[in-house]
Amino acid sequence: MAIDRSLSNVERTFQWDDVIVSKTDLTGKITYANDVFLGISGYTEEELLGAPHSILRHPAMPRCVFKFLWDRIALGHEVFAYVINRAKNGDHYWVFAHVTPCYDQTGKMVGYHSNRRVPKPEAIATVKPLYETLLGIENSAADRKQGVEQSFAALVKTIGDLGFDSYDRLVMTISR
Predict the structure, then answer these.
(1) Residue 105: φ, ψ to 5°
(2) Cα separation of 91 and 33, whole Å?
(3) Closest Cα partner for 19 from 121, 133, 97?
(4) Tens digits of pLDDT across the chain (176 residues)
(5) pTM for this entry
(6) Is residue 4 part of a domain?
(7) What residue stretches are annotated with the PAS domain (predicted)?
(8) Cα–Cα nearest to 83, from 39, 122, 128, 49
(9) Cβ-Cβ contacts under 8 Å for 21 (sequence gap 6 or more)
(10) Which of 21, 23, 33, 43 is spaced 20 to 30 A from 110 at the CA atom?
(11) Residue 38 near residue 48 (C-beta atoms within 8 A)
(12) Angle at 74 between CA 165 and CA 84, to 5 degrees
């Protein structure tokens, strides 16, 4: 399936009491998407199931935040993050994401579960400049891997400079 990756500059919104829900396997391939997710993303269930969750990645979203997210959930930790996603038609939408590992009956990690809600506008106003800075670092590097490493280091430094010990604590503080 060929996906149009152009951007529309239109921001989609959803209701404060809506919850976008998805589940993935350990490699990030989508195994479940609720109706709210289908509606906001513009994809059908058939298009999403089996697709990598990165199908939603917006180019304005720094990859280092996803590095942080994947590093944390792979270790069995929950993660909170602000994410800008791209809908199928190029529109974008911001979410406050909560991602947790899923386990089978034996305690083996088998995938991930994500709930996404409408973020507070003040929180987005706080993270947007940070994300723009991180994205600038990523885009100025010689290659993608080096860019992610450099922007991740900048993210860690910024978090410390702001007096936080983790991205999660920063996110939770600006979410209040």
Answers:
(1) -65, -20
(2) 19
(3) 97
(4) 445 567 888 999 999 999 999 999 999 999 999 999 999 999 999 999 999 999 999 999 999 999 999 999 999 999 999 999 999 999 999 999 999 999 999 999 999 999 999 999 999 999 999 999 999 999 999 999 999 999 999 999 999 999 998 888 899 899 88
(5) 0.91
(6) no
(7) 25-50
(8) 128
(9) 32, 33, 34, 36, 37, 113, 114, 115, 116
(10) 43
(11) yes
(12) 70
Domain of residue 35, CATH code: 3.30.450.20
Q: Among 169, 18, 7, which Cα is nearest to 95's? A: 18
Q: Provide the domain limits for residue 23.
A: 19-175
Q: Is residue 156 part of a domain?
A: yes
The verdict on residue 48 lying in a domain is yes
| Residue ranges of E strands in the chain | 20-25, 30-33, 79-86, 92-103, 109-117
